[in-house]
Amino acid sequence: MEDDTMNEIERLLALTEKAVSPFHTAEAVKETLEEKGFAPLCWKEEWNLQKGGKYYIIHHGTTIFAFTIGEDFEGESIRMAAAHGDFPGFRLKPSPEMKAEAYLKLNTEPYGGVNLASWMDRPLSIAGRVAVKSEDVFHPDLYLVDFEKPVLTIPNIAIHLDRDMNKGRELNRQTQMLPLAGMAGQETTDGYMKKLLADKLHVMPEDILEYELNIYNADTGTCVGFDGEFVSAPRLDDLTSVQAIIDGITKGVRREGLNVSVVFDHEEIGSRTKQGAGSTLLMLVLERIYEGLSIQRTKLLQGLSEGMLLSVDVAHGLHPNYQEKADPTNHPVLNGGFCIKESSSQSYATDCEAVGIVQSICDREGIPYQKFANRSDGTGGGTLGAIASAMIPVKTVDIGVPLLAMHSSRELMGRKDMEALSAFSAAFFTMDQRG
Fold it and tell me: Per the UniProt record, which residue ranges are transmembrane (predicted)?
């Protein structure tokens, strides 16, 4: 993530270049927080916190919390915003090398709801985390790795060999979506992936214990449209929200409040993991903050009654070629402002009081917003909002920028919507109780 001399879109495109795995998302956020004066915390150490302080902590490598404490904070006012740093794609399986005649392929599995066809014929790379032997068996050495250049591709079949391909076809995830890595030779048998990782990390192949590596689209993001009004890039879901909530938390400290931004992992696979929004993690962090300020836990429980959580994730924009897929009256368009997402099923956290607060802030600050709802005869995705608010019972609302091609390897958004979401996040974290 870059400094404030860059505009929102320049910073967003820079973030999409850095955040190529959930581990790298957390690292990019960490860099920005440290540039803004946030101090690191360690989970296994005491937190001796100071009012007026700014802090961050990383949990299991992929979830990162940032929080600011007001000079006059006594436990009453808590504002939180959550996004996610993972994205749909593919993960490498153990022992991934597969030989097909003269070719080397890698064995992968899908992660999240992947638009398979959108990954065909793309320049792809590999990034993630590697565990290496150390003297302490309970604490292996952990390294981030990024191949930083296209090393894979998933080639399509020629239309000459599948004349009916444009009539629609189902792609097999195990046989037809395996990336091509090179030509197979004697040196590319079992263990070749570990040899490549060992070379990058300057360790011995036999010392590599395991890895968490994902395939990512190595395309560069760019603005498109006659007036550059759209942004086309990989990983806009959910890096748009990551940037917005970090923009907001770094704008200032409310004198009487506690502000918390968190980038969770594993939203794309349901959030119910040790570093996902469906864990007790958020509540544990809040408890440690109050303990570190010597404020009684009762104050925390009282403060939650006035607390509020923004679940920040992307929304479906009206697609000009598939207008029949949109709700008749709640169909946001790109560049019309960020979306407030509502659903009676609570797949989006819907609370009229929280929605009213968001609208009031936008009206006061002149920030454009739109409403989104799914068609009643269809289904949409869910977010971490309802999951997190079941763990932390506070007013919750789902918001985010509208996208086209959501969950494709490359997505499309309106540049004005990023500006609106960042402006709202800043207002949410800086406005006092009376506005």
Answer: none
